[in-house]
Amino acid sequence: METPQNDRGQFGNLGFVLAAAGSAVGLGNIWKFPYITYDNGGGSFVLIYLLSVLLVGAPIMIAEITIGRSTQRSPVGAFLKLGRPAWSTIGWLGITTGFVILSYYCVVAGWTVHYFLKCLAWSFNGFTQTDAATLGDQFGDFVSNGKLQILYHGLFMAFTVTVVVFGVQRGIERATKTLMPILFVILILLVINSTRTPGFREAIVFLFKPTSIGSDGVLEAVGHSFFTLSLGMGAMITYGSYMSKRQSVPKSAITVSALDTLIALMACVIMFSIIFSVPAAERGSQFSQSLAILFTTLPKMFYSLPGGAVLSPIFYTLVAFAALTSTISLLEVVTSFFIDQLRWPRRVATVLVGLLIFSFGILSGLSQGSVSALSEWTPIGDKSTGVFDTLDYLASNWFLPVGGFFIAIFVGWFLAGSFTRKETEEGHGHFALHNLWRVTLRFASPAAIGWVIYAVILGKKFN
Ligand code: PHE
User: Fold this and answer.
1) Statement: the pTM of the whole predicted model exceeds 0.85
2) Domain boundaries, the chain
C-alpha cells in the first residue's frame, strides 16, 4: 500500500472522478455555455467546442493530472519538483488565477441561492405574472443592492470553506460524492421534462445543425473549453495530487471531459427547450440580456410551463450545487499552497484564505451598480467595464490560456517521454495513445492556444 506524502490525503475509488467532474461542471456549463452558444448561433459553435475539448482540453487535462499525481504536490511545489525553479511561475499564476476566479465566481454563485429562495417563495405563494422587463429590473435591483451582494457572496464562501476545512476525503470527496449524483439525477429529470415541451425539437436542431460561424466564435469556443474543464490554473494538478496511483490518469481525464461536455449539452437542451417554447415573435424581447438569461428569462419561462412551480426551485438547487463543487476546487488550489509549502494547518489556511478571497470578492459584488466607481472602472480600455467584468476578462482571456499553454509546453517538451509514459501507465497499463498525446501537447494544443492568445493581443474578447 502506498502512503500519501505527509498525510496530504487521498481520494478513494470514484472520489477523484467525481471531485474533478464537480470542479469542471459549474456555472461555466449551466450559465455561460448556453448563452454563448445562443449568441454564436448554435450548431457550428458546439461542433468547434467539441473539437477543442478533444484536441486541447482532454490532452491538457491528462497533462495536469499527471503533474499532480507524479509529484503529490500542489501547483507551485509540483513545478519546483519537476523542473527548474522558473517553472514554478506557472504554479504561482495558477494560485493567483484561483484567487481571482473564486472572488467573482462566488458572487454569481450567491445569485443562484437568491434565485432558489425566490422561486421557492413563488412556489408557495403563487407566481405573480411578471413580464420580462420587470424581471430584468428585479435582477438589476438585486445585483445593485450592495448589502445583499455581500450577504450572498459571504454565504456561499461560508459553504465552500465548510467543505474544504474537512479536507480531501471527509470534505471534498464526501461533498462531491453526495452532490454530483443528485445533480445528475436532477439534470436527467429536467431533460426528460424538456422532451415534452413544444420547443424541444427546435432546441435539438439549433444545437446540432451546423450553421455559419465567425472567427470570434471559434476563439470563444476554444477559450471556453479551458474555463469549463477547469484547466490552465492547476485545479487538476491539485486534485491529481490526491489521486491514487492505482487509478488510470488517461481514463479519468477522458471521463471527466466527457461528463463535463455531456452536462453542458444537457443544460443547453433544458434551457433552449424552454426558450424555444415561447413563440418566435416574442422571443427577441425576452432574450435581450443574454448574460443574465439564467436569472431574468428563465424564471419567467419556468412559470409559463406546466409544473414550473416545482421545477424552478429544483433547477436553481442544481445550479447552486454545480457552483459549489467548483468553488470547492478553486479554494483548494489556493489553500493547498499554504498547507503544502508553508505547512499551515488546513483549518487555519482554509479559513484565512476564504476570508481573504471573500474580502477581495466584495469589490466584484459591489461592481454591479451599487458603487459607481467600481462598476464603471475601466482599467483596460473598452474591453471590460467594472471590477467583476475586468477580473473575468483577465482570468478567462489571459491567465487560463497562458497557464494552459505553458503546461502543454512543459509536459510536451520538458518532461522526458520515458517519464510521462511511466506516469500515465501507472494504474492504467499500456497507454497506446501515449505518443499521439505527446505530439498533441507539443504541437496542436500550443498552436491552438497560441492562436487564442494572439487573438486576445489583437483585442478580441471571448468570454
Ligand atoms: N470549470 C468551472 C465551471 O465550468 C469553473 C472553474 C474554472 C473551476 C477553473 C475551477 C477552475 O464553472
Assistant:
1) yes
2) 5-457
